[in-house]
Design a protein that fits this description.
The protein has one helix at residues 41-61; strands at 18-25, 28-34, 64-70, 74-83, 86-105, 111-121, 127-133, 139-141, 144-153, 157-163, 169-177, 181-183, 190-197, 201-204, 214-217, 221-227, 234-239, 245-249, 255-259, 273-280, 283-291. It is mainly beta and 294 residues long. The strands form 6 sheets. The protein has a 6-stranded antiparallel beta sheet, with no helix packed on it. It has a 4-stranded antiparallel beta sheet with strand order 3-21-9-8, with no helix packed on it.
């Protein structure tokens, strides 16, 4: 605040002074002028900006990210949030319908692209929006965005035989689903099918002096855990077309294909192996739902 004595005839307002107060003192009229308020406009604007950012931060803090797994030709309005190791459900104000899910593979079997065709359905069943989701190409619906995240097995149906290491058929035409255990009374072993793999890219060295392996695909396969008496569980992979190979798991999701005949030399060799005859894939699409109130 700046104060300056001026004559009443000097018209202070023309020189940046503004009448701030006026009062009577006896027969005199006292007028108080000041200037500098406009000069401090930047101060108020800066503080207003800070407040605006803080409010926006509080609004953003109320946003969330949730996962939603959905099978083709179904719809879902319940996602889940994992926080501090706990899983919480998050209800959506609309349903997401998965109209189709597609995977494209490279020649060596690796995923090239996977996409979901989804629709947003309101409470009375009307389709509000439809779009093909791709990674980094979401669908927006108000304060919500739906992203393609990943995919997984939702219960693929399997038909298979159980065979011994030397190829003898022990049981024929058994049926199970991925995620479903198979327990038998003859031998005390149990099989837990864990995953269906559409393609199995595998590094192959074709010569001793080859520096980098070639990637080839061994086709469709199913991973399973074989539990048998007096032995640690075995992670194995059954190849549908390459029945002469068996994948040995390392406990971290990696499998090394070896000839089935090699199992004869194992200290705790499998009592039974899975020989696949038919797979009916049932894959779910995993979507990321992001809510940001702005």
């Amino acid at each position: 605040l700046q104060r300056k004595a001026v004559k009443l005839s000097d018209a202070p307002s023309t020189r940046g002074f503004w009448l701030a107060a006026e009062y009577k003192s006896g027969d005199a009229t006292v007028k108080l002028y000041q200037r500098g308020i406009l000069h401090r406009a930047g101060y108020f604007v800066a503080h207003l900006s800070v407040i605006t950012i803080a409010v926006a931060g509080l609004l953003s803090a109320s946003g969330w990210r949730a996962q939603l797994n959905i099978l083709p030709q179904t719809q879902n309005d319940t996602a889940y949030i994992v926080k501090n190791g706990e899983r919480y459900t998050q209800q959506l104000p609309f349903k997401i319908r998965l109209d189709a899910f597609k995977i494209e593979h490279l020649p060596d079997g690796r995923d090239a692209e996977f996409t979901s065709e989804i629709s947003i359905v309101d409470a009375v069943g009307n389709v509000k929006k439809s779009r093909e989701l791709q990674v980094n190409r979401p669908l927006s619906n108000g304060a919500y965005k739906v992203f393609q995240s990943s995919y997984g097995d939702g219960g693929s149906a399997l038909t298979f035989d159980l065979v011994s290491v030397d190829g003898e058929v022990l049981r024929e035409d058994l049926q199970a689903q991925v995620g479903q255990p198979l327990k038998t009374d003859d031998g005390g072993y149990q099989i837990q099918f864990t995953n269906y793999v559409p393609e199995t890219p595998t590094p192959v060295y074709r010569s001793e002096d080859q520096q980098q392996p070639d990637m080839v695909t061994l086709g469709a396969a199913v991973d399973y855990i074989l539990t048998q008496p007096n032995s640690a569980p075995l992670q194995l992979r059954a190849y549908q077309k390459n029945t002469g190979l068996i994948g040995l798991g390392d406990g971290e999701g990696n499998f090394t294909p070896v000839p089935v005949t090699w199992l004869e030399n194992m200290l705790f060799k499998p009592q039974v192996l899975v020989r696949l005859s038919q797979i009916k894939p049932q894959l779910y699409s995993s979507l990321l739902v992001a809510y940001d109130p702005g």
